Amino acid sequence: MTAPTDVVQRGPVRRALWLYRRSLGAKIRSVMEYEADFWILMVAAVMTQAVGLVFLWTVFRRIPEINGWGFWEIVLVYAMVYIAEGVGSLFFEGTWRLAWLVNQGELDRVLVRPYSPVLQVMSIDVGLNGLGNITMGIGLIIAAVQQVDIDWTVGRVLLAVVLLVSGVAVKIGLNLASNASAFWINAPFSTFAFSLHSLGELARFPITIYALGIQAVITFVLPFAFVSFFPVAAVLGHGSSAWVGVLTPLVAAWCVGMGVWLFRRGLRRYESAGA
Q1: pLDDT digits (tens, 9 = 90+) for 64-90
Q2: What is the C-alpha to C-alpha distance for residues 68 and 197, in angstroms, rounded to an integer?
């Protein structure tokens, strides 16, 4: 795959983005050859997330609020999780293939190409179920913003956009960092990364309902709370958690940077299948 002359002349970043788009596009076209599978994945993704919403709705039929949070406010938290998971699956699904690439020695092919290994790995696969999650998340946001009692000024809308993008970046950074463990744990599947990400389920609710130890883990150690809870708290101006949510862009930069650093450190340990 050779980049056009004008793309090369405009610098390495533009070339990297062009290659990433081409790599991902090729994968999407190959997956779309099986159109029925695509629609099954879409419907399955929406139904899976809908089950969580039904549970939430059932809870709120019996209680008016959870630790000061109403139904539509928590729906916004859910929507952030759905969008972050959807973007991660649709555009960066290859991260979850890293363990298999390392275990099978398939990373060799990645390393001989003149293109960033981390970007190649992230674009090596696509999860079209992510489109269903993104659609569900956007739909919930549209519904929820009409229900919450908030003055949507231009500044607040801009803050919401910045924190939404940052929350997605936190999720992608955590995906990369946790899956980089494949360089140290010799296994064909990302079992360790999946176990860490199970903690992310806790961030679908206001984290103030948990014990301090759990709050500390999903705030400082594996900051899943910055994917959903803290950004929404900042936008809604919800209690003392609001100012913490403003820090989400910094947390995103930390998570992405840590993910790339761990990937590069792990790459030094990699031994090819023929070694």
Answers
A1: 888 889 999 999 999 999 999 999 999
A2: 26
The pLDDT tens digits for 97-119 are: 999 999 888 888 888 888 899 99
Amino acid symbol at 133: N
Q: Which whole-number Å values give the CA distances from 91 to 20, 43, 62, 110, 171, in the listed order?
A: 10, 19, 39, 18, 12
DSSP, residue by residue, 119-146: HHHHTS---THHHHHHHHHHHHHHHHHT
Closest of 66, 76, 65 to residue 235, by C-alpha? 76
**CB-based contacts of 205: which residues, under 8 Å, 6+ apart?**
66, 74, 77, 229
- The radius of gyration of the chain's CA atoms, rounded to the nearest angstrom, is 20
Cβ burial 90-111 (10 Å sphere, 16+ → b, else e)? bbbbbbbbbbbbbbeeebeebe
Contact 131, 42 (CB under 8 A): yes
- Cα–Cα distance between 221 and 3 in angstroms, integer? 40
| Residue at token pair 């649709």 | 90
3-state secondary structure of 168: helix
SS3 69: strand
263/98 Cα distance (integer angstroms) = 10
Rounded CA gap, 251 and 163, in Å? 11
What are the contacts of 231-234 at 24+ separation with CB within 8 A? 231/80, 231/160, 231/163, 231/164, 231/166, 231/167, 232/73, 232/76, 232/77, 232/80, 234/159, 234/163
DSSP, res 270? -
Alpha-carbon dihedral of residues 230, 236, 240, 242, nearest 10 degrees? 50
